[in-house]
Specification:
Layout: H1 2-12, H2 14-20, E1 32-39, H3 45-65, E2 71-76, E3 85-91, H4 94-111, E4 124-131
Helix pairs in contact: 3-4
Amino acid sequence: MRRSGLIVLALCLAAPYSAAAQEGEEQEPPRGLFISSWICPQSVVGDIAQAYDSITRPIEEELVAEGKMVGAGLYFHNWADEWNVNYYRLGQDRTSLFEAIEEVGRRTQERHPDASNPFESCSAHKDGIYFWGPRTAPAPPPAGQQN
């Protein structure tokens, strides 16, 4: 089940890459994939999504525009195990992703010092760092082209 979820995620992640690529520029597909997973009460999933959308996503969009990360977002399970809230971040390598994550935290603290942690009611958390290997997924289209 976990493998099929990652395959679906991989296909969905092609869109942020194509949006981030500059027209006429050949870029490598994002190599690094960080996934943070939580076990959360179903009653707070909407609050987590809203907090991400209003606080974190705008900052991550800035970092994508600045070329410091390739993309990020949340995904929630529809049918899976207990790890129901997942947060992914894409970058070219581990170092740049760690720097981007740190910058997200710095900007969030600077702009929203009184924001509460939307994950505080979640009972468990784990992180994974992945790098793409051989795959059947097609390379993202050049910038400006749609599938």
